[in-house]
């Protein structure tokens, strides 16, 4: 139950009634009417902007509309007060019985509380990570993996039918570089000195691949020309790298439903079929592009190319799909891959890319719009950089990778739970600082510890209550009337709204932010019990009161666990 959706419906009913009685004119559009938590909780439990957004089209003063609306809403016994504020905002306070009902819903629904039918089974494909299979994943891939996986969890929780997909970029020149790099480690395994020329991958992770090549093929490729071994070693090394990537993802708690290969698009007619679909729509032509901005005639030569008319679908310029030598540009197989996803019947495509793909967004959205006749939307989320520190100092590069800090470096250092939660503490398009020392601190300043500590405290209270027999006592939830207790229930009531809001805008970091706020409310109530004994969750001589208070604690644990499950982080029974 989304309480805010329920009371928005109540507000809309009141507006329709005001229209019927002539207070409001006919034909007003109520689409922009909202019911939300007020910015300042002291103002009430909910606030609606109805009077503000309707005043101009109605030709009335906002306060006049708000006062009429307030009078109508007060006939609902669930609304204790309706106060007009400022130019015409309307703040609502709900009766205590509403909060007891919310608490009952949390306890009755358990891990289903907050689940939504908003997605209505929409088939959505979330493509994320999709790292080149040339080495271990770096910390940037880590953030993308966490965001993609948490978003997939969130959408599934909100009623979508989600497929997680990894697109293996194994069709370009980089896998040939991998093969040549692995060949040098193969030579090294035979006692030769590896020649790691500029442009090859220097990481020590390829030493194991060289040893495996020796075990598989013996000396048959030694002193042989590249034409003899390139394809075999490329396939062997790529498969080894993908095995390592799968292991790294598993260490982070990420699983994929589908792995798709770029290489599989070549030589199968897939690319040609996708381009032909665009050609049939009149979107493929031969032409000459304008010089790129900032280029001078001396360093740019106009030439005729095969172009996709992406400007017909919102792009800034048309895009080349074929190189001068007749080969496909990198954009062409990507068009074919997204065409394949459209053909598989997905209703929504979401791509999670690194920040360096910013220039790629419009062209890919244009391609999907053209291929699907604007039926299938493509959402692209860019992942900004992660800056690594340790005690405030930049974290040094990984020796194993040779050039960067790997996903496994991060997980091995702080654990998957910490890694995942911290990666979700900021919106995906904002850069993120990750300090290995700070993320392990046991303090309120460390959000993952603070939330998991709340989870552990919940279980501690429930164990004490069970020991005294309170778990067998039916709780009277109406006895929870203290402002601090009601404040915690109000925060629990926001959970279904947060789920739907975060899913609607594809922002799983909102769940992490909400959990931090919920944990703060819970810890605050816990701490107030130190000074006010009546607020303590366990009342040693009063089973009935303990049963009611621990029902609130149990409900808090349910919502924390549900939120952490979306983030892919464990709820704690105890902290060590």
UniProtKB/TrEMBL annotation:
DALR anticodon binding domain: residues covered: 451-575
Keyword Aminoacyl-tRNA synthetase in record: yes
Record's signal peptide: none
Pfam families: Arg_tRNA_synt_N, DALR_1, tRNA-synt_1d
Main location: cytoplasm
Keywords annotated in UniProt: Aminoacyl-tRNA synthetase, ATP-binding, Cytoplasm, Ligase, Nucleotide-binding, Protein biosynthesis
Location in the cell: Cytoplasm
SMART domains given in the database record: Arg_tRNA_synt_N, DALR_1
Motif 'HIGH' region boundaries: 131-141
MF terms (GO), sorted A to Z: arginine-tRNA ligase activity
Gene3D superfamilies: Arginyl tRNA synthetase N-terminal domain, HUPs, Isoleucyl-tRNA Synthetase, Domain 1
Domain Arginyl tRNA synthetase N-terminal: 5-94
EC number from the UniProt entry: 6.1.1.19
PROSITE patterns listed in its UniProt record: AA_TRNA_LIGASE_I (PS00178)
EC class of the enzyme, as a word: ligase
Catalytic activity reported: tRNA(Arg) + L-arginine + ATP = L-arginyl-tRNA(Arg) + AMP + diphosphate
InterPro entries to which the protein is assigned, alphabetical: aa-tRNA-synth_I_CS, Arg-tRNA-ligase, Arg-tRNA-synth_N, Arg-tRNA-synth_N_sf, ArgRS_core, DALR_anticod-bd, Rossmann-like_a/b/a_fold, tRNAsynth_Ia_anticodon-bd
Family that this chain belongs to: Belongs to the class-I aminoacyl-tRNA synthetase family.
Quaternary structure and interacting proteins, as annotated: Monomer.
UniProt xrefs under HAMAP family: Arg_tRNA_synth
Designated name of the protein: Arginine--tRNA ligase
């Amino acid at each position: 139950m989304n309480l805010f959706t329920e009371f928005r419906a109540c507000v809309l009913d009141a507006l329709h009634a005001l229209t019927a009685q002539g207070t409001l004119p006919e034909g007003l559009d109520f689409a922009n009417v909202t019911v939300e938590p007020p910015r300042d909780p002291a103002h009430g439990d909910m606030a609606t902007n109805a009077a503000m957004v309707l005043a101009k089209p109605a030709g009335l003063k906002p306060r006049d509309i708000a006062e009429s609306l307030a009078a109508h809403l007060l006939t609902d016994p669930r609304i204790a007060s309706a106060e007009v504020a400022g130019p015409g905002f309307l703040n609502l306070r709900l009766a205590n019985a509403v909060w007891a009902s919310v608490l009952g819903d949390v306890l009755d629904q358990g891990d289903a509380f907050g689940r939504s039918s908003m997605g209505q089974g929409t088939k959505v494909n979330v493509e994320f990570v999709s790292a080149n299979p040339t080495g271990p994943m770096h910390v940037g891939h880590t953030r993308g993996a966490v965001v993609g996986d948490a978003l997939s969890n969130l959408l599934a929780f909100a009623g979508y039918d989600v497929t997680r997909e990894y697109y293996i970029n194994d069709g370009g020149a980089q896998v040939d570089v991998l093969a040549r790099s692995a060949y040098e480690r193969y030579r090294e395994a035979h006692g030769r000195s590896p020649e790691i020329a500029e442009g090859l991958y220097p990481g020590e992770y390829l030493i194991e691949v060289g040893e495996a090549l020796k075990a598989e093929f013996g000396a048959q490729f030694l002193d042989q020309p590249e034409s003899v071994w390139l394809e075999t070693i490329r396939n062997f090394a790529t498969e080894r790298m993908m095995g390592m990537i799968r292991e790294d993802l598993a260490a982070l708690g990420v699983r994929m439903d589908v792995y798709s290969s770029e290489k599989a698009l070549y030589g199968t007619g897939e690319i040609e079929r996708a381009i032909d679909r665009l050609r049939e729509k009149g979107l493929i032509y031969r032409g000459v592009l304008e010089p790129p901005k900032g280029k001078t005639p001396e360093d740019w030569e106009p030439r005729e190319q095969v172009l996709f008319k992406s400007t017909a679908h919102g792009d800034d310029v048309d895009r080349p799909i074929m190189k001068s030598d007749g080969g496909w540009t990198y954009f062409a197989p990507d068009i074919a891959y997204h065409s394949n996803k459209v053909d598989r019947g997905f209703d929504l495509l979401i791509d999670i890319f690194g920040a360096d793909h910013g220039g790629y967004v419009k062209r890919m959205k244009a391609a999907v719009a053209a291929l699907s006749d604007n039926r299938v939307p493509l959402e692209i989320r860019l992942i900004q950089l992660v800056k690594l520190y340790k005690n405030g100092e930049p974290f040094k590069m990984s020796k194993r990778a040779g050039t960067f800090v790997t996903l496994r470096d991060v997980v091995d250092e702080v654990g998957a739970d910490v890694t995942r939660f911290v990666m979700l503490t900021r919106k995906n398009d904002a850069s993120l600082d990750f300090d290995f020392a700070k993320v392990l601190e046991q303090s309120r300043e460390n959000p993952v510890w603070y939330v998991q500590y709340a989870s552990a405290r919940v279980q501690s209270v429930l164990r004490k209550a069970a020991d005294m027999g309170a778990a067998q006592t039916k709780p009277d939830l109406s006895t929870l009337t203290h402002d601090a207790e009601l404040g915690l229930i109000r925060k629990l009531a926001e959970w279904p709204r947060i789920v739907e809001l975060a899913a609607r805008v594809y922002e799983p970091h909102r769940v992490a932010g909400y959990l931090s706020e919920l944990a703060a409310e819970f810890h605050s109530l816990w701490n107030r019990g130190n000074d006010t004994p009546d607020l303590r969750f366990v009342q040693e001589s009063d089973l009935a009161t303990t049963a009611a208070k621990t029902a609130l604690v149990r409900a808090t644990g349910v919502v924390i666990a549900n939120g952490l499950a979306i983030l892919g982080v464990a709820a704690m029974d105890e902290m060590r």
